[in-house]
Amino acid sequence: MSLAAALLSCALAAFMTFAGAPKVAGHPKTALMAQHLRVPTELLRFVGLTETVAAIGLLVGIFVTWSGVAAALVVVALMLGGAACHLRVKDGFTAAAPALVSAATAAGVMILHIAGN
Predict the structure, then answer these.
(1) Per UniProt, which keywords does this protein have (predicted)?
(2) With contact defined as beta carbons under 8 Å apart, do 87 and 80 qualify?
(3) C-alpha span between 87 and 62 (Å, rounded)
(4) How many CA atoms lie within 13 A of 56 on its CB side?
(5) pTM score, whole prediction
(6) Burial letters for 83-93: b for 16+ Cβ neighbours within 10 Å, e otherwise?
């Protein structure tokens, strides 16, 4: 694995942890976000759990390639879904941008993992 892939994996894992942990913990802002996005609170809690597990997979992926690829693929799917939710409620590109940047970063991690093997 390249240094770039390891650094991107760590950065993305940190972002996924900071994004997912409050959702899993049921932070009060999660309910407000769910209401704004017009999705069930339970769905956001599941998304948070998936983000947190993906973060672990990204870190394991530093040593086990398939784990990093799988976790990055999950992040791409989650973040594209998140961006779509923001655009669906007309939040605009600014609200969707962090999810889109995360999806692009995860795609880069996948490419670096695959190219490194």
Answers:
(1) Membrane, Signal, Transmembrane, Transmembrane helix
(2) no
(3) 33
(4) 7
(5) 0.91
(6) bebbeeeeeee
